[in-house]
Design goal:
It holds the Pfam family DSBA. The protein is of the alpha+beta class. The chain has nine helices and six strands. The chain has one domain: Glutaredoxin (3-Layer(aba) Sandwich), CATH 3.40.30. The strands form two sheets. It has a four-stranded mixed β-sheet with strand order 2-1-5-6. Strands 3-4 form a two-stranded antiparallel ribbon. About 30% of the residues are buried.
């Protein structure tokens, strides 16, 4: 009897996308409920690639980009806060919350992907941005987050200063856009099955069960 190969899940997401975090936590819970392991491969997507270095107030950004009223924006925050609480995560939105550029953070993730699992750093970045209100576009803060995720901050600094991951990140972003990915989160299971948007713990569980049945 042969052992089935590990489940591969390619995840296209951005660090400042709350639904990317929600989808990840839901997926992890579905995997844990089935005592199932998976190889998670992260790929970059920038919601706001033209965001300037100083960033923008989050509420103002949402209003400008989506035409959302203040009431609708608050309702969305309240909903995310409740969903996060159910998943054991704290969304700490405030009037000072800012949308920031994530290109440098994606370079850091790309560097980590060459040598270790990206999940600890990805979770640390999500936590820093959504729970702690830290600026994940700031190089020094990124190095602090890298250290918190168990990485050598000096190695991380050299990876960012070198610029070696600028082109790889751009190429990966271009590749997924060419594959038709226009919004995140997006997950590709086993290199074949695209699932867009956060599906809920039950939804991801159903997907995992269907894949298990197909593998026989």
């Amino acid at each position: 009897m042969t052992t089935p190969s590990a489940l591969r899940i390619d995840i296209i997401s951005d660090i400042v996308c709350p639904w990317c975090l929600v989808g990840l936590l839901q997926l992890l819970q579905a995997l844990e409920a089935r005592n199932q392991t998976a190889a998670l491969h992260w790929h970059p997507f920038e919601l706001n690639p033209d965001m300037p270095a100083e960033g923008q107030n989050l509420r103002e950004h949402i209003a400008e980009k989506y035409g959302t009223s203040a009431a609708d924006s608050q309702a969305a925050r309240d909903r995310l806060t409740a969903i996060g609480a159910d998943l054991g995560f704290v969304f700490a939105f405030s009037e000072g919350s800012r949308m920031v550029n994530t290109f440098l953070a994606h370079q850091l993730l790309d560097w980590v992907g060459e040598r270790a699992s990206q999940l600890p750093l990805k979770l640390a970045l999500f936590r820093a941005y959504f729970s702690q209100g830290r600026d994940v576009s700031d190089p020094q803060i990124l190095l602090e987050i890298a250290a918190e995720a168990g990485l050598d901050p000096e190695d991380a600094r050299q990876a960012l200063v070198s610029g070696d991951h600028i082109q790889p990140v751009r190429m990966k972003e271009d590749y997924w856009r060419q594959q038709g990915i226009q919004s995140v989160p997006a997950m590709v299971f086993q290199g074949k099955y695209l699932v867009s948007g956060a599906q809920g713990v039950e939804g991801y569980g159903n997907i995992l069960d269907q894949l298990a049945q197909m593998q026989g």
